[in-house]
Amino acid sequence: MSAHYQPQTALGRAVNEIEETAIALILGLMTLITFTNVVLRYGFNTGLIWGLEMVTFLFAWLVLFGISYAVKITAHLGVDAIINLFDAPKKRILAIVAVGVCIAYAFLLTKGAWDYWAPFAGLDATSGRWFPTGFENTRDQAWYETNDIPLPEMLRFLEGMFNQGEEYEKLPRFIPYAMLPFGAGLLLFRFIQVGIRVVKGMQKTIIVSHESEEDVANVAHMNKEG
Fold it and tell me: Are β-strands 170-172 and 134-136 bridged in parallel, bridged antiparallel, or unpaired?
């Protein structure tokens, strides 16, 4: 269940730390930027020109992180009315089938996310309609920039690496768009983790369903004992 999740491997712990730290930072930055913009707008009749675009990107990042995080803690909602009609062995088979479908979906999502992001970074997209069969030349879109977000001076080295030495006036789009393949890859990683736990019998379902009722019951029981 969600409250009992503990990463078991060094890789799992590392990904878990990255995930939770990133979510906390994104929430903090969104709050800070929005609050600052409100104060500047209503108090000084000005504002951060790039604030809205930055918060929009951060919100998109938060959603993508949140999808995989909800898989990790078994927080995605689902309907199990039909599944509960079967006995435990059949439930396990259905759970394995469900997580297999989710892994396939996350794999396709990761491929599509890479293919969309790669041209913005001057890289090649994958060939093949469903599965990568190699790489194919794609139109270089590394010169695409965001509308308002300025490029920090510390990132000027990116001009030589991705933009053939041409100067960026704004933040290149491949930076905020990088969350697409990263988030999709993280979702794939989480579904594979869930699949392993389901196969080993450590987890019964990939949705919150009745596990939430058990959590509420446990909390109520603990309160009574306290």
Answer: unpaired
Mind listing the pLDDT tens digit for each residue in 22-31? 999 999 999 9
CB 40 within 8 A of CB 47: yes
Task: Name the amino acid, one letter, at 64.
Answer: L
Output the six-digit token pair for 33.
């930027």
Q: Is the pLDDT of residue 219 over 70?
A: no
The pLDDT tens digits of the residues spanning 131-163 come to 888 888 888 899 999 999 999 999 999 988 888
Residue that is written with structure tokens 């695409």 in the block: 144
CA distance 32 to 153: 22
The angle that helices 51-72 and 10-44 make with each other, rounded to 10 degrees, is 150
Q: Is 172 helix (H, G, I), strand (E, B) or coil?
A: strand
Smallest CA-to-CA distance from 93 within 211, 208, 205, 212 is with 205
- pTM of the predicted structure, to 2 decimals: 0.83
Task: Give 134's strand partners.
Answer: 127
